[in-house]
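FAQ: What does a multi-protein file look like?

Like this. Sequence, then tokens, then the next protein.
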Amino acid sequence: MSLFYTIRWCLWMNFLPMLVFAQQYTGGSIFLHGFARVEREGKSWYINAQGKQVFDRIVDYWNITTAGSEALDTGSEEAVYQVQAGKRYGVFDAQGNWLLDPIYDTIDHRLNQLWKVSKDGKVSLCTTDGKLLLPLYYEDVQQLNENFFAVKDQGKWGIYAKLTQQLQVPIQYDDVDYCGGCGYAPHYFLAKKNNKWGVVNMEGKVLAPFVFDHDHYQMRSDEWVMSFSRNGTRLVYNLAIGKAFEEPEYSNTCLLNNGFLALEKGGRYGLIAGSGKQVLDFDYEEITGLDEDTFRPVNPFVSVKKQNVFGLADTSGKMLVEPMYKQALKLVLQQFFWAEAEHVLINASGKVIFDAKDYNRMDVLEKLGILIFRKAGKWWAFDPVQQRLITNKGYEEIEDSDIDTPSVLLVKENGWWGALNMKGKMLVPVKYDKIGCADLGAMLYAKKGNAENIYTLTGQALLEGGYGYEKLDFQDTMLFKYYKIGQAYDHYGLMDRNGKIWCKNLYQAIYELAKGNYLLVQDSTYALLNTKTETIKLLPFKKVTALEKTNYLLVNQNNAYYLFDVNRGKLIPKPYETMEGLTHGYVKVSVGGKVGIVDTHGKTVIPLNYTDIWELKNGYFMVLQQSGEQLKYGFANAKGKLFVPIQYDYDRNLYRYLEDGYFLLTQRQDDTYAYLRGVADSSGRVLVTPNYEQVFPYNGHQGFLYIKDDKAGLLNAFGSPLCQQDYDDVILADRPEHKPLIINWPAMLKKGDTYFYGNEKGEWLHYSAQQLIPFIDNRDSNGGGLPIL
């Protein structure tokens, strides 16, 4: 902020009582997205920072990702607003950028990622960034795919190509239709001419003559047209061969999910491919698809019925299983077939791979790719690929839903659960309440009561008989802690995923160091475990504290504290009275009541000259020194440099860390004992002298909002006042307690009963308001629920 702007702002403020603002409104809102709502004589409209009326009202808002307005935050970067200016409409985003200038008669955003706009009777489509996809020239527009658009001019329709920016198919048709739900895939469209419908491709070639009636029903994008009818009777048209399958020659047409048409001719059914080729003769009493669920993968099988029995064919016309079954076969696991009446499972060649006549129920466990069969109240598991029973006995329940590991089968017997692998090997004995995937990785937990026992996927019992486990906190390791349930105090051991015990569960605490080292604590005894040398060595110290994620310890020897280098097995020969581990490899130490900071090598970072030192974020420290009855403080950086001198008054109830790069300064007033606040930066430069009751950085590092004597004001980034300190309030969109402060420019400031506006340059704007009103008036919106600020 230049001195010129600062002086100019304050001069304007000094003459404020004499100013007559050119625009005085009865009501005004804060600025959001570059606009503010103002009100006069019962009417409201929106102005920009220059005070110019821009639009009349906000009529709608939505999220450009979901197209919905539910739970939309006004500050969301995905929020967009539709506004009305006179009789025209436009759209701006949350940054105040105009996506569509307010020049349109209508804006329809129901297509979400495409908006339909109209102006003076002409229509176009645009993207969410406001880019028109085709000229604003046509009476109506419909998108066919990413390149082609159906366009209407003088009551007729044609096709416009975005890539060439010209008409692809001349405007000549009375109406058009297409498959809008086919993923923008159609290579043709349906067109109406002389009151009849046909099919035209994107090059203008007629694929089906204009002799049909049509309604928007069963629309497709492949070679089959299902929406045609003639003389009131529906038909199916194949574009590949240009043939209509219709009565009286054909009847009971049914298009299967695999794209083949089953239909009746002369009382018998046949099958036609999408190419128009007949693949099954009209020789069957019935042809149906298998597993016609829309969400299932397309399969190449059809069920055929002949002489009242059922068989199986594929869509090449090959007969896989001659008709011999009493009911239509059911497709299971995409490659096997279940004959319900005969209770047999067959493969695609017709071979019976499991005779289930002795079983009364079959179910599919799709995740495991197996079947389960029930007999005499028990379930058996069968692997259809290996054509073998997995279980050698029946179980009350068999399931796959409670475990993420696909090679494990859960079984239940007498109310208890166990686990098998896909070969039927018992991995976990049937004696637990619950079995699932352990959060240690590819392992199983088996829970009984409070105990969670651990098993590998090979069936090895790592922990069994009332044990629990915990992950280690820091390292990506194969090891985990285990402990015995029910002990008075948890006693931990270390085990790896192969079942190897690295140390027995004898220790009250285990701390990870670095590079395979662990500190083991047992009562007042300390030891080091090295997993590389596979050794445990006792430490000759009365007290040891781990600097976790490092290979250094804080140890007590002969009533003095030292740093201990784990890798070298040696003390760093410099004693201290106290030591406290900090982050980033720093240690707080003291001698003779004086405190300093050293690194893990024992090198002094901050000399031992101070009453106390507190670690802050990002490698900074608050350094405190007692001065008489008052505790003074300053700040040091990670190199130990005292960049803010120790001259500020500390009070534990006042101090809080500001945004990164800012440091709060507090000064006690001798007469009132009140604390005033200021701000310094990381170079030690005092940006705001401690003259204020409260001070908050705003908009990152743009400036500061202050409060003093119940008045509010603004400072620039260097602490210079943008105005004199006599506002009653600075109006904010939001005043979060623990979040960075945001001021929307122009700022709204209250003095007395008037709300004034000023910009970040220190300039007063020529309009004011008598009262504060919401940014959005819900009475103007289409659906209610607009965020009000």
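And here is the next protein:
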Amino acid sequence: MYTISGKVEDAKTGEGLPFVNVYFQGSTIGTQTDDQGKFIIRKIKGGKYRLVASMVSFKPDVQVLTVDKNIEEISIKLEEDIKALKELKIVAKRDKEWEANFKEFSREFLGNNFKKKDVKIANKEVVNFERKNEILSASSFEPIIIENKKMGYKVFFILDYFQKDQRKIGINGIPRFEVMTPKDKVEEELWEKNRKAAYLGSIKHFFKSVLYRQIKEQGFSSEYLETDPEYKVFNEEEAYGKHPSLKFNDSTLVYKTNVENMYLVNFAHRVFVRYWNRNRWVERSILKQEVPIEVDELGNLFDPMSVEISGGMADRRMANLLPFDYEIGDLLDFDFEELTLLLPKEVDEKFRNPREEIEIENLQPYYLAGENLNVDLNIKDIQSGFSATFSKILYADFIDLGKGEIINNFKLKVNNAQAKLGFELPKNLTTGNYQLRMYTNWMRNFSEAGFLKVDFTVFGKNFMEEMPDNINIGLEDIKVHVEANTALVNGLKSRILIESLDNFGRNMPTSFKIVSPKNNEVVVSATDSLGMCLVEFIPTEDGEYKILGGNKSFKMPAVEKKGMVLAADYISSTEKLRMQIQNKGLTIDSVNIAIVKSGQIVYYNKIINNLNSYVLNLDIPFQSSNLSIFLLDEDFEVIAEKTQLVDSMSKDYFIKSNLTFKEPISYMFDYDRKYEYEKGLKVSGTVLKSNGTVFIKPVDIKFMVSDDVSDTTNVKPQIFDINTLDKFEIEGLDFFGKKQLTYICNKCEVNLDTIPSLPPVFAEQRPINWTLLMNKGEWESLQKRKEMVEDLFKNENLSEAEIIHEKPKKENKNDKKVFIIEGFYKP
């Protein structure tokens, strides 16, 4: 058993918050902070948990904890929930429409199998509704309190998401359980009976039965499904099929993980589950695995969204929800040491951390200099596919690709995983190719390939004169993509994708030849209408191979004398992924294969490197998804990496699209991460003596953050008292534009940390895509747009766009020591 402790503070003031509920999500395990904001929770089993801190009028904070030792000094900072505070003051009108919506919400949220007097929502006034196009959505500005007198629990549910349409219902949130006190022994026994009834046949009961290899003994019957049926039109004989390999085998499903009391369950297909109780089939359910399923020793799902549930199990709603620490002695003992450890610790650590992905909406293919650019941005968690609420700051760079320069960079405020960027394109921009590059501080731990990069064209004020009379289209470039990003190896077969592009960067068909260093023709072929051609190629000569096409010569990747080649495809079978590994000259004892879907490992294997070639045929438990395949050496460093598209219709995407060869957003991760999540604006720096030497004893510094002349808001100065020996950090800032940071300190000098260096930008000489204006309608539209911004070009002394890399500026105003600091950009 372990103990955790820490402190909850107001993110704005830094003061400890009393009476905050701190608990493990979905459990009865928790406590409240004391008058200084401190908390301690004892007697915790080892495992993986979500630690929640919540308080009315503040946004809840959720942290994932791996508990394998005592954890001290957990720091939690709660942000004020402005939206909730407003809704507390103005309660929406509760009319007949609201009452009808609440009745429907209550039925779907709580379920039906209970008496109304036994289970009810005690504070229904906190729920608000919105109905659009037959879709009912619900939200609440306080936790919904459920009094469950059927099972003896009071549940506080922070509603994150509720949506019902004609086909399905989605519910997500954070529950906290309190055990009610029974009035007598009879009620206590009744509650225990009802809790057991809610447990039997539940998803928790099923996964515990899987974990302990006692599916049949616990009354479950389970088979894989050969088809993908809708539950309402389910045909058992058609769904099961006759294939014997589809029979459900519970002895090969479960693996150990590197986290105490946590296990991994992997289904190969959808699973049809029937639960037998008292001589009748009670429930029929279908389970679909979305990502690898993490389960604790009691059968609890760490991520409820890892399994899509339809049928009887899905009908069990909040009225039948049990806390995850509910136990029942229903299974025989099982020695979990018999289970196979799925992943070496070195591999597990590389993939354990969550990933963010940025999506953009409303970006146009081209703009006119002086126009406004407005886009909406969403941040998603790659692992779950849902909104990512980790980072509160998003960085955006506006880049001139032709010059390789950042014209401007923006610091955007993220609310509910969403941000907006809107700015006027400089009126002096010349016609050229430009880019928006976006990332969070956390994303900088990974490959820059994970940043969002979107290109577009800007036409300058003289575009009408610049546009050539005749637009000639011809072959400009041929790119060679080697499968799995590996180099060509002499004597080993590699698959390469030839991609031909015209002088405007668009794919185009062309004929080509591959020529050896001795000028022998090795391949003669042509790209298709999409500008693609897949070639199996065995280099047999040392030196440089070339591609000849359109009277031009293009370089091939270098040919190495030794190395390893990875090939994978999904076109030979509808159920298996075929992989081939070839080795020439690499003297390593073993290689590791890891396959990743949505940021989580779905397959791992270690192969002894004693052959020149290996072929693996792997069952694919996923439909319509992208897999990232890694080949790792003995030290778990990447030898090869590729993206593989798996399609349930067995279409040959391998040839028809370059998606298979697209450079993946690398999931390989240094778990000694350098960059952290940014939860808000902050200022940090160091303090030294006036002569530049360090202090021997801590010194007191008073900081004041006040309005700068360029910021029109009228807010009283924020004051921060810091006592430090050298480093300091001011958190809880939240403003747009610029502010003044003034400090008072006796005989000391303050230096602020500068913005971390931006990833480098390199010039790319691409032709202007004048074909965007070849359509008569597009040309006329741009002329009208030009007229709308014409006044912007009149009597303007246009110089080149200013390159902006602002750092904190230090000024002296009346001998005061002042910095000018940057806040969020306001679109």
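Q: Is there any per-entry metadata?
A: Some entries carry free-text notes. For the entry above: The radius of gyration is 31 Å.
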